[in-house]
Amino acid sequence: MAITAQGLGKSFGSVRAVDDLSFEVPEGVVTGFLGPNGAGKSTTMRLMLGLDRGQGRTLFDGKPLIDHPHASEVVGTHLDARPFLPGRTARDHLRMLATDARLPESRIDEVLAMVGLTDVANKRPKGFSLGMAQRLGLAGAVLANPRALMLDEPANGLDPQSIQWLREFLRSYAAAGNAVLVSSHLLSEMQVMAQHVVVIARGRLVADGTVDDLVSERSDVLVRSDDPARLAEALRASGADVEREGDDGLAVTGMSTDDVGRVAFGAGVALRELARRRASLEETFMELTGDSQEFAFAPGESA
């Protein structure tokens, strides 16, 4: 089941938090939802779920969420790290959700075991660590086995082992034909968790595509040779973009390593190094959103 956001918009006074935002969350893959602080990610997710008033609409399997008879079977959400009543136990919290979704008690035990909270099922979440609260929130999101998940910063507070578990769980959940939308500031984790990313800045879409495509667009080939000037001339003549890098190096875009090697051979230039350099998602993100950060250091200031 795919999720389609169409023309979403929301203003807070004179501030346009979300501005004519449209994108799709495809089924079968994890979609990372990225943007600087204040970009409008949380507001967008609330608009998609009908929790905030604004412009546009969101379709779940071709229909607005309100037109589905049982919303909990359509989309599971976790938008707040601690959306629990302080006096209610973890089991009671899930029991309330299960009753609303007409689920058996056995399903509560299944999801508690799934997220590793069986031993604290009868304890109150007010004493939980942030990581434990995140696990309980995820348990509530998947309780009705929905066909889509929308999670806002679910990895906050998790230790490395828990983050690895979350990654594998969400990729497996998506691979079963479900749509998964995850916002996160952990860009290195998003690069291995998500196959598709949507990037926004100042409420507007700045990138939408597969991780591989976005990263590949900003990757290059590093080549070092005995005669970088002659090689650069030959590469440019063959249609590549070339920049000098150090005394003997060239950064080449628009060509594969094989193509660079063939051009070098044809020009009679011996190579010392030839390697494909793959940009990271973090580098790509910073290039896409660098002008939209909430803060920046002035020249001469220390970080």
Task: Enumerate how many helices there are, as a single number.
Answer: 11
**Order of helix and strand elements from N to C terminus:** EEEHEEHEHHHEHEHEEHEHEEHEH
The largest beta-sheet arranges its strands as: 6-7-8-3-9-10
Number of strands: 14
The general outline is: elongated
Overall mean pLDDT stands at: 90
Structural class category: alpha/beta
Our Rg estimate from Cα atoms comes to 24 Å
CATH homologous superfamily label of the largest domain = P-loop containing nucleotide triphosphate hydrolases
Q: Given this structure, which CATH class of the largest domain is correct? A: Alpha Beta
Q: Could you name the ranges where pLDDT drops below 50 across 5 or more consecutive residues? A: 294-303
Overall helicity: 25-40%
Largest sheet: 6 strands, mixed
How many domain regions? 2
Strand content: 25-35%
CATH-scheme architecture of the largest domain:
3-Layer(aba) Sandwich
The CATH topology of the largest domain, please? Rossmann fold
